[in-house]
Amino acid sequence: MAALRDPIRLIPLLFAGLIVLGTLVLSLPVSTSDANGAPFMTAFFTATSAVAVTGLIVADTPVYWSTFGQVVILALFQIGGFGIMTAATLFGLMVGRGFGLRDRMATQVERNRLETGDAASALRLIFAITLTVEGVVAVALAMRFATSYDISALSALWHGIFHSVSAFNNAGFSSFSDSVMGFQDDPLVLGPIMFAVVLTALGFPVMQDVRLRGLRWRLYSLHSKITVVGTAALLALGFFAILAMEWSNPDTLGPMAAGSKMLNAAFHSVMPRTAGFNSLDVGAFHDETIMMNFFLMFVGGGSAGTAGGIKVTTFVVLFVLVASEVSGSRDANLFNRRFGGSIARQALTVTVLAASIIFLATTYIASISPLPLDHILFECISAFSTVGMSTGITADLPASALIVLCVLMFVGRVGTITVATALALGERKRLYRYPEEDPIVG
C-alpha cells in the first residue's frame, strides 16, 4: 500500500502493469497474422519496447502482427508516451525545477510542492499538443502516401496515423518492413516525421515556455535555453558528422544525389537522439558513424518529454562543469545563471549510473553471444536510451539477452525519471559535516 501513496514507486508499477497487459493481449491468436498467437518472449519484448517507446523489434511489425496486433502496439506506445511525458512533467513540478508555469519569474524561489493549477495546466497542454501534432502529421503523411505511392486511401490513412503517433511519442515503430527506407528521397515523408520527433523530444517545459513567452528568448527558463541550444548544437553536429562520414559510402549515402544526402543526414542526426526510424541501413554505417551514434543516443533529448538518454540538460551541465574547472572558475555559469551543487551531483549520478548499466549489460550479452561487440554495444545503448535503432541483430540474440534489453528499456525509460526525481526530493541537510580532506585526483 505504501507504493500506492508514493508516486515515485507508483509510476514504475503502472508501467510494469501496462507491459504485463500488453504481453497478454499480444499473446492472443487474434494479435498475430497467422492466428497462432505470439510466443511469450516475442509478446513480452514487443510490449516492453512499445510501452517504453523504444522501437526495438524481434518480429517484423507489419508481417508478423495482425491489424489488431498493430493497433495494440500503437495503443501501447501512445499510452506509454503520454504517460511518460505526464509523469516526467509532474515530477518536475514536484521538485520545482522552474517550468515557467503561471508565468513565474525566472528568479522565483524553488518550491517543494505541486500546485493543482500547475498540474492541470500541464495536463491540458500535453493533451492538446498531442492531439494537434499527431493529427496534423497524420494527415500530411496520409495525403502523401495516397497521392504519390501505390497505396490505397484507407491504407495510406493507417500508415499516416501509425507513423504520426510513433514519431510524436519517439517510439520508432513502423508499419513498413523496412522502416522508412522506401522514402529516403521524399522530404514530404521524412520531414513531418522529423518535425514530430524533434518537437516532443524538446519536452514539455520548452513547449510551455514557447506558448507563454513566444519568441522572447530572454524570458525563457534556464532549462528551456539549455535544451534548445543543446539540441540545435547536437543536431548540427550529427548532421555534418554523418554527412561527412557517409558521403562516399556505397551502402548508404554514396549513390544519392547531393540533396538526398543532406536530407538523409539530417534525418539520421535526429533519429539517434530519441526515435528508431531509419531511412538508411544502419548496419552498413562506417565504424566512425557508429561511434557518433553511440554519443548521440547516450545523450538523448530533452527532459519531461518522450526522448530517452541521460538528457541534453544533464550533458550540458556536466560539460559546463568541466569547462569551469578547466578554466579555474569558481562557479559553473550559463546564460547568466549559476548551477547549484545539488544539480551537479544529480547530473553526475545519472550519467555514471547510465554508463554503468550499459557497461554491465554489454559485458553480459557479449559473454553469451558471438555477435560483434560494437553491434552489441549499439543495441544496449539504443535500448537504454529508448532509441530503438538497431544494426539488425535484435532477433538473433538469445532469450536471456532479450530479457536484459527489456530491463534496459524499462530502466532507461521509467527508471531515469524516478531516479532523477528521487535524487532531487531525497536531498536532506545534516546537522553536522565531517572535516574536509581532498584525495589526489588524476
C-alpha termini separation: 47 Å
- Helix and strand element order: HHHHHHHHHHHHHEEHHH
The strand line-up of the biggest sheet is 1-2
Oligomer: single chain
Largest sheet: 2 strands, antiparallel
Unreliable sequence segments: 96-117
Basic shape: globular
Structural class assignment: mainly alpha
Helix content: 55-70%
Topology diagram in text:
Layout (H helix, E strand, L loop, with lengths): L1 H4 L1 H20 L13 H12 L9 H4 L2 H28 L21 H33 L4 H16 L18 H16 L1 H10 L8 H25 L11 H13 L16 H13 L12 H16 L5 E2 L2 E2 L2 H28 L4 H12 L14 H27 L17
Antiparallel strand pairs: 1-2
Helix pairs in contact: 2-3, 2-5, 2-16, 3-5, 3-16, 5-6, 5-7, 5-16, 6-7, 6-8, 7-8, 8-11, 10-11, 10-12, 12-15, 13-14, 14-15, 14-16, 15-16
Please tell me about this protein's structure.
The chain has 442 residues and is an all-alpha fold. It has one domain (2-103, 115-425). 63% of the residues lie in helices and 1% in strands. It has 16 helices and 2 strands. The protein has helices spanning 2-5, 7-26, 40-51, 61-64, 67-94, 116-148, 153-168, 187-202, 204-213, 222-246, 258-270, 287-299, 312-327, 341-368, 373-384, 399-425; strands at residues 333-334, 337-338. A two-stranded antiparallel sheet has the order 1-2.
Features:
442 residues, mainly alpha, two-stranded antiparallel ribbon, 63% helix, transmembrane, transmembrane helix, membrane, TrkH family potassium uptake protein, Cat_transpt
